[in-house]
Design brief:
The chain has about 500 residues and is of the alpha/beta class. The protein has helices at about 25-35, 75-85, 120-130, 135-140, 155-165, 165-180, 190-195, 195-200, 205-215, 235-245, 290-300, 305-310, 355, 360-365, 390-400, 430-440, 455-475, and strands spanning about 15-20, 40-45, 55-60, 60-65, 70, 100-105, 105-110, 225, 250, 255-265, 265-270, 280, 285, 315-325, 335-340, 350-355, 370-375, 410-420, 445, 480-485, 490-495.
């Protein structure tokens, strides 16, 4: 990869020049599909490296992800991408996904029979002892309460709280959603963050019965929940970038796009500093950056989309990684980690015992145990204003209390993700629909990324595919992106 302001010559079969703004996984996946579809592609990434929030570095000699550490294995898009890159055989799955929840001051197993914290098995819920006696007694009222009608979108807290009581929200649902969004149940959209539950709830008076239906319809053996790569998930963007370049595309880092304007023939981008700007012309553009910079770029040409994007809020967080001697734990953890509800009032919101969750890390250094602690929720930015040393001390204190760790770590690392997680607040789906409608009115323009239809890697790859298809349709007149038997993307003429 290079930061030089030159472009590769167009190949004879290229049908145009597309610029992808943003070198995260969505932008890179879109660029790969476009390059493999016969288009000359340039990726412009403002930071010094590609990958966005997918980054990995060594701590204590172990490659531990700084951002997302796993991709959902029950959606095909991300796994298909890895296989198309020729690394399908490298995929690894967790040794355990058994996790706990810290509730009423003690670690308790996550109750079976739940879907994103929404319970369906009342006996398992009682056995887990996550809820107080009063909170537990409130849950079965869902079976007899009148239907909770909803027309427009509602918050997770409003709907689930009305059906099952506030404790289910506080001690089960919000901690699980917090692992994805670091958000607040009072703000998060029921439709956007729990779409399967929201859809099922429309067909049942009881939320318990709706979740029972979801579980009954699930495959008996759905396979592993998560997957990653041995060198860390942060290696994936580099594999995709290399494939883009192998297909004739260019991937530039340190290339911040300052302005995006329509021209008679397509689009013109202003790149670099105001003192020494560079003009780049393109036939089409994919905007694959977070909502705030996307709003700034679209403000002149697509103000309706920009206004909606500017309303998407983001949460900040930090991940403190600690590598301990295995002997520091009087008893090695058996589960993959635990979640901490906000109502517990702790600094740390989630702990992952990485060396337990991922056997390849344990095999690489059996004498060490890597742990990741997440700190920060939406509205708690003050918690992240502390120094790295203070955040590390908070993580060490958490492990000393819950896991009785009595030694110092071998090495630590603090990674801060300021404004890293988009908040799917009430009305999010309608907001995204308005963004897409405004963008659709602009030929040769598409958007992609985590701000739209999901934060996970499969969802980001799916948004990349949709964006690439739209651009190829524009450039080819009647083009459609398809996958051949070899898994590669190509353009085919449509009728």
């Amino acid at each position: 990869m290079t930061s030089a302001p030159t472009f590769p010559p167009a190949s004879p079969h290229a049908s145009g020049h597309v610029v992808v703004i943003g070198g995260g996984i969505a932008g890179l996946a879109a660029a790969r599909l476009l390059a493999r579809g016969g288009v000359r592609v340039t990726v412009l990434e403002g930071s010094p490296r590609v990958g966005g929030k997918l980054q990995v570095s060594e701590v204590g000699g172990l490659p531990v992800d700084e951002g997302a550490e796993a991709m959902l294995a029950r959606r095909p898009e991300a796994l298909d991408l890895v296989r198309e890159l020729g690394h399908g055989d490298d995929l690894v799955n967790p040794g355990t996904t058994s996790s706990a929840i810290l509730s009423h001051g003690a670690l308790r197993r996550l109750p079976s029979g739940q879907v994103m914290g929404v319970p369906s098995d009342l006996r398992a819920l009682a056995s887990a002892q996550v809820l107080s006696p009063a909170g537990l007694a409130r849950v079965p009222l869902d079976l007899v309460l009148p239907e909770t009608r909803r027309g427009a979108d509602v918050s997770v807290a409003d709907f689930i709280g009305a059906r099952m009581g506030r404790e289910v929200v506080d001690r089960l649902v919000e901690p699980l959603l917090g692992g994805v969004y670091a958000g607040r149940a009072e703000r998060l959209s029921f439709e956007a963050t729990l779409p399967a539950v929201a859809t099922a709830a429309r067909g049942h008076r009881s939320l318990i019965n709706a979740v029972r239906g979801i579980r009954a319809a699930a495959p008996a053996d759905p396979g592993p929940v998560f997957a990653t790569l041995p060198g860390g998930l942060g290696t994936l963007p580099h594999l995709v970038a290399a494939d883009v370049e192998a297909a004739g595309g260019a991937v530039r880092t340190g290339a911040t796009v300052r302005e995006l304007r329509r021209t008679p023939d397509g689009w013109r981008l202003t790149v670099g500093s105001a003192r020494d700007p560079e003009r780049v012309d393109a036939d089409a553009v994919v905007v694959a950056v977070p909502a705030a910079p996307a709003a700034r770029l679209l403000s002149e040409e697509v103000p309706a989309a920009a206004r909606e994007l500017a309303r998407i809020d983001y949460a900040s967080m930090a991940i403190v990684t600690l590598v301990y001697p295995a002997t520091a734990f009087p008893r090695l953890p058996r589960g993959s980690g635990y979640l901490v509800p906000a109502v517990e009032g702790r600094d740390v919101k989630a702990v992952t015992f990485s060396s337990v969750k991922w056997p390849h890390l344990r095999d690489r250094a059996p004498e060490l145990l890597a742990v990741r602690c997440s700190i920060g929720r939406y509205g708690e930015e003050h918690a992240l204003q502390r120094s790295d040393e203070e955040l590390t001390a908070a993580a060490m204190t958490e492990l000393a209390v819950t896991a009785r760790v009595a030694e110092l770590p071998v090495e630590t690392r603090v990674t801060r993700w300021g404004g890293g997680l988009p908040q799917y607040d009430v009305g999010h789906a309608d907001r995204v629909a308005r963004v897409r409608a405004a963008v659709a009115a602009q030929p040769g323009l598409a958007v992609a990324g985590a701000a739209y239809d999901g934060l996970g890697i499969p969802a980001c790859v799916a948004s990349a595919r949709a964006a690439a298809t739209r651009v190829l349709d524009h450039l080819g007149g009647r083009g459609e992106l398809r996958h051949g038997s070899d898994g590669e993307a190509r353009r085919e003429a449509g009728g």
